[in-house]
């Protein structure tokens, strides 16, 4: 079983990496980009029977800094 966790900075939290990407895109001639938020995707290979609650606990304890980041769990 697989799970995909998408972690993003919460709105209102400064994203210096996203701003650097936006600036670099502008320097490359892509002037239509007004904002970039950068995050991470974590794919987990899980043992059969692992619950969504367990994956949620993994996120809260290790995979996301819940003070600054939000996360979404998907089971593709």
Commentary on this structure:
- By secondary structure, the chain is an alpha+beta fold.
- The chain has one domain: Phosphoribosylformylglycinamidine synthase subunit PurS (Mth169, Chain: A).
- Helix content is 32%, strand content 28%.
- The chain contains two helices and three strands; from the N terminus they run βαβαβ.
- Strands 2-1-3 form a three-stranded antiparallel beta sheet, covered by helices on one side.
- The longest helix has 12 residues.
- The mean pLDDT is 96.
The helicity comes to: 25-40%
Distance between the termini: 9 Å
Task: Spell out the CATH superfamily.
Answer: Phosphoribosylformylglycinamidine synthase subunit PurS
Mean pLDDT metric: 96
List the helices and strands and how they pair.
Elements: E1 2-9, H1 16-27, E2 39-45, H2 52-63, E3 69-74
Antiparallel strand pairs: 1-2, 1-3
Task: Please name the defining characteristics of this protein.
76 residues; alpha+beta; Mth169, Chain: A; 3 strands; PurS-like_sf; cytoplasm; PurS; phosphoribosylformylglycinamidine synthase activity; ATP-binding
Summary?
With 76 residues, this protein is α+β, with helices and mostly antiparallel strands.
């Amino acid at each position: 079983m697989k799970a995909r966790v998408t972690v993003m900075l919460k709105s209102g939290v400064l994203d210096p990496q996203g701003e650097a990407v936006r600036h670099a895109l502008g320097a490359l001639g892509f002037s239509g980009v007004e904002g970039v938020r950068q995050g991470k995707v974590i794919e987990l290979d899980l043992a059969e029977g692992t619950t969504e609650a367990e994956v949620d606990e993994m996120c809260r304890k290790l995979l996301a800094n819940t003070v600054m980041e939000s996360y979404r769990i998907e089971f593709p």
